[in-house]
Amino acid sequence: MQRFSAIIAFLMTRLGVNIDHVATIRQARGGVEPEPVAAAILAETAWADGIVCHLREDRRHIQDRDLELLRKIITTHLNLEMAAVNEMVKIASKIHPNLVTLVPERREELTTEGGLEVVKQKSRLKKVIKTLHENDIEVSIFIDPDTEQIEAAGEIGADIIEIHTGMYANSLTRNKMENERKKIINATLFAKKIGLKVSAGHGLNYKNVQGIASIKEIEELNIGHSIISRAVFVGMEKAVAEMKRLINEA
């Protein structure tokens, strides 16, 4: 029975909980509350499979001390989202998260607006990935469901792609949503065919998550804003548990 349970757990889509917006609330007042590390512990208590945080160059939410504490305290895996710049590569090489996800970053954006442009930056990104691999850090690339970009990610040595689900999540009609879901399915199958692991995220919430969670080739969903928003009303543990249940049911 124990072995059977372990197999079922392995087959289920994992949930990575992004805690950035707990830090956003804290930084709004410039104080010490709420504590994003405490949110990460509560998420793990509710059986989150990993913790995600984005250390931005402008430090608008997650701070360096948050990252350092998360590395010491969490017991699942730590996924550090970051821009592919020298400062962040040095920080990652020092902190040693389990996974680095390379994302595009603009100072003006409220949140990440799309996937990373890989094709035009292959040479530079390949060097970044090589350095991270030399420090025993797996590398994911946050990417649009575009086969040309996915193929380039494979060519430069990425281990994983995280498919940007924003267009799906923001669809205003059922037909549009289904069309975007088909793009994600096709991108996922292509990535698996060329040997890449696949995760997905951005804009997923309690109403739309099952459409993506039901794609069995996607191994992990990374979700933040909707969970933190729900936690305001029901608490962090319940918010995470509710999302886990929806994913498992799919």
Briefly note the CATH topology name. TIM Barrel
The major beta sheet can be summarized as: 8 strands, parallel, barrel
Low-confidence stretches: 1-10
CATH homologous superfamily assignment: Aldolase class I
Strand order of the largest sheet: 1-2-3-4-5-6-7-8
Shape: globular
Please tally the β strands and state the result: 8
How many alpha or pi helices?
Answer: 12
The proportion of strand residues reads 15-25%
CATH top level?
Alpha Beta
Radius of gyration using CA atoms only: 17 Å
Q: How do the SSEs run, as a string of H and E?
A: HEHHEHEHEHEHEHHEHEHH
Tell me the distance between the termini.
Answer: 23 Å
Question: What's the layout of helices and strands?
Answer:
Layout: H1 2-11, E1 14-18, H2 20-29, H3 36-45, E2 50-54, H4 64-73, E3 77-82, H5 86-95, E4 99-102, H6 122-134, E5 138-143, H7 147-155, E6 160-164, H8 166-169, H9 174-193, E7 197-201, H10 209-213, E8 220-223, H11 225-234, H12 236-249
Parallel strand pairs: 1-2, 1-8, 2-3, 3-4, 4-5, 5-6, 6-7, 7-8
Helix pairs in contact: 3-4, 3-12, 7-9, 11-12
Describe the protein.
- By secondary structure, the protein is of the alpha/beta class.
- The chain has one domain (13-249): Aldolase class I (TIM Barrel), CATH 3.20.20.70.
- 50% of the residues lie in helices and 16% in strands.
- Helix 7 runs parallel beside helix 9 (174-193).
- It is globular.
- The two termini are 23 Å apart.
Which descriptors apply to this entry?
disordered N terminus, 12 helices, TIM Barrel, alpha/beta, 8 strands, 250 residues, 8-stranded parallel β-barrel
